[in-house]
């Protein structure tokens, strides 16, 4: 009973400590909000130009959901866009810069597909979430009287991402948003392993997604106050 009480107290302390710190920075070419006419859409794409590196697809989906949270910003799903534009937006052929994009749009078939989808803005997301530090250990064993795990371990995760907004009509950059989220996670094992995980990627998505929304619909909180 005493062990359970101590374990519960430690879990509570760790749950309080398993927080995430998020820093968001932005750069805008123009202070005015970006405009989307009726029927126009945005596409959010992840950078995937190396065999051993890619911006997580679920993170890209999360950004799209944040932008389209209240249906004010229409977002074309990444997978649908890549399939429609195959093979021009596969990892080896996707444009890394505006000059390359401009040349691609000189191709009538590509330009027509962009027009059919009502695409006005393209948002490139580059980055990833990585484990940066680990400590402690947990061991498990099974014996004649039963089994269990004992120990304590921690790990740090850092999510660093940058979003670049391209205006497809002007072939220009409209702005950038950078986010860095850091969090400490823990696992305590007293018979059963119990993880307390900091939601680093979720916090990074929320930070960058909400900031991107302000490019299109402004800062609602400041307007309402």
Polypeptide structure, described:
- By secondary structure, the chain is an alpha/beta fold.
- The protein has one domain: Double Stranded RNA Binding Domain (2-Layer Sandwich).
- It contains 7 helices and 6 strands.
- The chain has a 6-stranded mixed β-sheet with strand order 1-6-5-4-2-3.
- Strand 4 (about 120-145) and strand 5 (about 145-165) form a beta hairpin.
- Helix 2 packs parallel to helix 6.
- It is elongated and about 75 Å long.
- The termini are far apart.
- Residues about 1-15 and about 220-225 have low confidence and may be disordered.
Helix content: 25-40%
Instruction: Label the CATH architecture.
Output: 2-Layer Sandwich
Q: How does the major sheet shape up?
A: 6 strands, mixed
Distance between the termini: 52 Å
Classify the beta-strand content into a percent band.
35-45%
How many helices? The count is: 7
Residue runs with pLDDT of under 50 for 5 or more positions: 1-17, 220-225
What series of H and E elements makes up the topology? HEEHEHHHEEEHH
CATH overall fold name: Double Stranded RNA Binding Domain
Number of self-contained structural domains:
1
For the record, what CATH class applies? Alpha Beta
Instruction: Tell me the overall shape.
Output: elongated
Return the structural class. Answer: alpha/beta
Radius of gyration, in Å, reads 22 Å
Count of individual beta strands: 6
The overall pLDDT average reads 84
Strand order of the largest sheet: 1-6-5-4-2-3
């Amino acid at each position: 009973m005493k062990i359970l009480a101590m374990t519960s107290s430690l879990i509570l302390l760790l749950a309080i400590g398993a927080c995430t710190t998020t820093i968001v920075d932005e750069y805008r070419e123009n202070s005015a909000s970006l405009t989307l006419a009726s029927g126009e859409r945005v596409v959010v794409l992840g950078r995937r130009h190396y065999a051993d590196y890619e911006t997580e697809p679920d993170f890209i989906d999360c950004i799209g959901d944040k932008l389209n949270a209240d249906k004010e910003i229409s977002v074309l799903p990444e997978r649908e866009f890549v399939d429609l534009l195959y093979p021009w937006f596969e990892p080896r052929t996707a444009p890394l810069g505006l000059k390359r994009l401009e040349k691609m749009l000189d191709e009538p078939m590509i330009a027509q597909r962009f027009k059919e989808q009502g695409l006005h803005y393209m948002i490139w997301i580059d980055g990833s979430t990585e484990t940066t530090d680990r400590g402690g250990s947990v061991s498990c064993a099974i014996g004649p009287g039963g089994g269990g795990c004992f120990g304590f371990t921690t790990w740090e995760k850092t999510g660093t991402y940058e979003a670049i907004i391209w205006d497809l009509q002007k072939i220009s950059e409209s702005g950038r948003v950078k986010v860095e989220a850091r969090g400490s996670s823990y696992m305590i094992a007293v018979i059963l392993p119990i993880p307390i995980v900091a939601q680093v990627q979720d916090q990074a998505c929320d930070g960058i997604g909400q900031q991107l929304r302000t490019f299109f619909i402004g800062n609602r909180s400041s307007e309402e106050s």
